Amino acid sequence: MFNKTPAMAGWFGYPLELEDRLRLISEAGFKAVLLWWAVESAFEPPIPQKVETAAKHGLAVENAHLQFAKVNSLWEPGFAGEHYVSELIGLIAEAGVYGVPTLVVHLTRTSAPPAFNSLGFSRFMRLVEAAERAGVTLAFENLKVPERLYEFMAAAKSDRIGVCFDSGHNHYVCPERRICRDFAPFIRAVHLHDNFGNADSHFIPFDGNEDWDTVRRELIDSAYAGAWSLEIEHPLTDQFGKALLSEKEDPYFGMGPEEYLARAFGAHKRLIAYANE
Question: Where residue 42 sits, what CATH number does that domain have?
Answer without folding.
Answer: 3.20.20.150
